[in-house]
Specification:
Number of strands: 0
Shape: globular
Helix content: over 70%
Strand content: under 5%
Distance between the termini: 15 Å
Number of helices: 13
Order of helices and strands: HHHHHHHHHHHHH
Radius of gyration: 18 Å
């Protein structure tokens, strides 16, 4: 891949991390008013409609055929159905900062499994970069005192978010199986399949009656999650996996905790302290080291 195209991929991965950083703020707004499966359904109803329009406007669009449907089903089940169940249920009780630290387990799981399943190389430089990025993110959300994170017992919400991290790891790895499809095609059809999976659960939660009571803040958060955190982010993240590999693309998720803290400062009035600056710098250096060409 040429340098300019590669830089574009990196920019998209960083932008995706910014969107996902804001998703924790929006997720707290949505989860306080909308049941988990209903929130997931509305998210992908919005996203599925936009993605379908994008896919229909492509000149060389092709419907998936034959064995291509199987990885799309796994993408829908892991990255849409399971992830949203874990995410929105977990966000009901877990603060945004603590939730962000759990996400940093995802690149580690992805790197290990990508090495085992797809034989992706993991030189010492990349291993050190992954470790630094994870450590920097951990440092940010623990406010410079990592041991304090263990003072609180692990809650049900924590376990749910760990389940979300594992389901996203599975999604990242499954994306490799769909690389004969374009990113837009893979995301569009996995979103539509996942949305259908969520329908009976959303109906059981009473979405038809509850939807009339949502405030404009809830709808704004749902639109942000559906458009920015799903349509743009899923397409760009899939492009990153196909071009960089699951390990390197997932590593950018380590930026999310620092971004989440910054979003908290902007929208919740929280203070940005020196430990946040140090942690984010360590994360950025770890990502640079892991992605630097030998």
């Amino acid at each position: 891949m040429q340098g300019k195209a590669l830089r574009t991929i990196y920019v998209k991965q960083v932008a995706t991390s910014f969107f996902w950083g804001g998703m924790y703020v929006a997720g707290r707004v949505v989860s306080a008013a909308v049941p988990a499966m209903s929130a997931g359904f509305l998210r992908f109803l919005i996203a599925g409609g936009l993605l379908s329009a994008i896919w229909l406007n492509q000149k060389n669009r092709m419907l998936p055929a034959g064995k291509q449907w199987l990885p799309l089903f796994f993408l829908a089940f892991t990255g849409i159905f399971l992830y949203n169940f874990f995410f929105f249920n977990g966000m009901q009780t877990v603060p945004a900062g603590r939730a962000a630290i759990i996400v940093t387990t995802n690149p580690t799981f992805t790197a290990i499994l990508a090495r085992i399943i797809f034989k992706e190389p993991m030189p010492l430089r990349k291993l050190i970069g992954i470790t630094l990025a994870g450590a920097g993110a951990f440092y940010v959300v623990s406010h410079g005192e990592p041991l304090n994170i263990f003072n609180d017992a692990i809650s049900r919400g924590d376990l749910l978010l760990f389940g979300g991290a594992l389901s996203w790891t599975a999604y990242s790895l499954c994306s490799k199986l769909a690389r004969d499809l374009s990113a837009v095609t893979a995301i569009t059809f996995s979103c539509l399949i996942g949305c259908l999976m969520l329908v009976p659960f959303a109906l059981h939660e009473g979405i038809l009656s509850g939807i009339l009571n949502y405030t404009w803040q809830v709808w704004s958060a749902l639109l942000y999650i559906g458009v920015c955190c799903t349509v743009l982010s899923y397409v760009w993240f899939n492009q990153g996996i196909q071009c960089l590999g699951a390990q390197r693309a997932s590593l950018f998720i380590n930026l999310v905790p620092g971004i989440t803290v910054v979003m908290g400062a902007l929208f919740l009035g929280e203070t940005i302290t020196p430990d946040i600056v140090i942690g984010v710098l360590v994360v950025c250096f770890g990502i640079f080291l892991a992605n630097r060409q030998a």
